[in-house]
Amino acid sequence: MTETLEIVTFRLKPGAEAGFAAANNLVADWLARQPGFVNRCLARRDDGGWVDVVRWRSREQALAAAGRIMAEIGDCEAMRAIDPASVAMEHAAIVISRP
What we know:
Distance between the termini: 19 Å
Strand order of the largest sheet: 2-3-1-4
Shape: globular
Number of domains: 1
Structural class: alpha+beta
Helix content: 25-40%
Radius of gyration: 13 Å
């Protein structure tokens, strides 16, 4: 298996900024329970957008979780805050990783 990064960029709906980071605790807990989850970093970009990077043990596990997330927690506060038209997701095989 090749470890994979899932990289999601997005913007929030107007007025959804307050409490967004705290609301992500539910998303973080959900991700931590998924097969193949390694870790996650959620970051605010300089342009006001967001980037969510999740490390998975394999691309297949990443895609499986991506296929379930909306059905399982898509109605949570953090997910409702995201502008769906702004979401871009990609996956990349990890070539080099150092602690």
